[in-house]
Amino acid sequence: MRRNYPLLRLTPEQAGKLLHDFDRLQAKHIQLQAERVALEQALSSLHGHEALVALRNIARNQAKAALLKEEIAL
User: Fold this and answer.
1) For residue 1, what pLDDT band results from cuts at 50, 70 and 90?
2) Calpha distance 66→60 (Å, rounded)
């Protein structure tokens, strides 16, 4: 099945800025992933694996609750 993808027409300056922004955000994303892994390892070693799982569940539930509150507010 063929799909038609929209073509983004940019000037060379806009394309350069977009590429620069993408590279910067990708580097930031990789850095945050590494920090998250290090934090999870530190928490796991300090408080044990069960505490880490419980903290993940609490964080996940809080994020879902915040999304529900936003949905209700609309």
Assistant:
1) low
2) 10
